Structures are given as structure tokens and as C-alpha cells.
């Protein structure tokens, strides 16, 4: 039986930019990752976005590279913090060839722990288009609960789709031995 891959979260390095660009520029999964209009993403525009994020909004967003055996395979971030209510949103993206191997689940579990233990959040949430059943399964397996549905909220590959909102409270996470 093969051993599960060693998944760690770490800071981005220059060596990771190729893999992260592949995730960001993938038009087939664009609508699953971002509410913005799909468009070709140049390498220069992507690198500018990375530079801008590093220089300006680092306190409003925390992003880690998902590392498997020393190679970047995606990213996971915590953003849109509410400092009064102590909650934030999680976003995750994994290269297509690395999906279905438990990597996203492991990265999500580490980010949830980071959010509750290191950032003192009380609640984390995320969103997925309703047709992204694989992602929704991963989120529910991690303890997230479906909280609502934004009807026809996303325009995805030529049709409107619902967005599913899922949330996890720190108290729920602690009951599962975090």
C-alpha cells in the first residue's frame, strides 16, 4: 500500500512560481477559484499580482504554498478577516494532477488549525460552486457544515450555478480533537 504524501504548508519561494502560475492560469477551473471574469493570465501579470500581494495586503491575507515532497502543488489562503467577529474565509487550489490523493484534505486541515490556533479565529468558512462535488466532499469531511446556498450566484462555463457556503466553528473543530 503506498504511503500518503507528506503535505506541508510553507512560504512561497521563487522556485514555486511556475506551479502557482499553472494553477492561477488554468481557464478550465477559473470559475471554481475566483469570482472574477475568466481571461488569459500572462506570466507578467501573475508575477505582478504576487509582488503586489507581498508588498501591500499581507495583513489582510495569509497564503501558503502546498508542498508535497519538496514541490509546490498548489496554495491555500486565509483572507477577508473580520477582526470584530473573528472569522475569515479559506481558499484552496491544487494542480489537477495532484487532486484525489488526499493532498487538499491535508492542506485544509493544516490551514484550519492555523486559523483557530495561530490566528485566534472563532469561525472559518469557504465557498464552492455546487457542481464542484469533489471539493464539497473534502470540505464536509474536514468538518465544514453547509450553511447556505447563494442561488445562481456564479456564471460558470455558460450557465448560472449556485454557490454553496460551508462553515466551521472552532468549538466544533475542538470537539473532533482538532
Automatic annotation (TrEMBL):
Database matches in InterPro entries: Acyl_CoA_acyltransferase, GNAT_dom
Keywords, alphabetical: Transferase
Superkingdom, taxonomy of origin: Bacteria
Gene3D superfamilies linked: 3.40.630.30
Family annotation (SUPFAM superfamilies): Acyl-CoA N-acyltransferases (Nat)
Keyword GTP-binding: no
Pfam families found in the cross-reference section: Acetyltransf_3 (PF13302)
Positions of the N-acetyltransferase domain: 7-171
PROSITE patterns tied to this protein: GNAT
Sample GO molecular function, one term: acyltransferase activity, transferring groups other than amino-acyl groups
Residues passing through the membrane, by range: none
UniProt-recorded name of the protein: N-acetyltransferase
Organism from which the protein derives: Microbacterium laevaniformans
Amino acid at each position: 500500500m503506498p504511503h500518503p504524501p507528506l503535505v506541508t504548508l510553507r512560504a512561497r519561494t521563487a522556485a514555486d512560481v511556475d506551479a502557482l502560475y499553472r494553477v492561477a492560469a488554468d481557464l478550465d477551473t477559473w470559475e471554481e477559484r475566483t469570482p472574477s471574469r475568466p481571461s488569459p493570465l500572462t506570466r507578467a501579470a501573475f508575477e505582478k499580482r504576487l509582488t503586489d500581494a507581498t508588498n501591500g495586503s499581507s495583513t489582510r491575507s495569509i497564503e501558503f504554498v502546498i508542498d508535497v515532497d519538496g514541490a509546490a502543488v498548489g496554495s491555500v489562503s486565509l483572507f477577508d478577516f473580520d477582526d470584530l467577529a473573528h472569522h475569515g474565509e479559506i481558499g484552496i487550489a491544487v494542480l489537477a494532477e495532484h487532486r484525489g490523493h488526499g493532498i487538499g484534505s491535508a492542506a485544509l486541515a493544516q490551514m484550519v488549525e492555523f486559523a483557530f490556533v495561530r490566528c485566534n479565529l472563532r469561525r472559518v468558512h469557504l465557498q464552492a460552486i455546487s457542481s464542484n462535488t469533489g471539493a464539497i466532499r473534502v470540505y464536509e469531511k474536514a468538518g465544514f457544515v453547509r450553511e447556505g446556498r447563494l442561488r445562481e450566484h456564479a456564471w460558470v462555463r455558460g450557465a448560472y450555478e449556485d454557490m454553496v457556503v460551508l462553515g466551521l466553528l472552532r468549538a466544533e473543530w475542538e470537539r473532533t480533537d482538532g
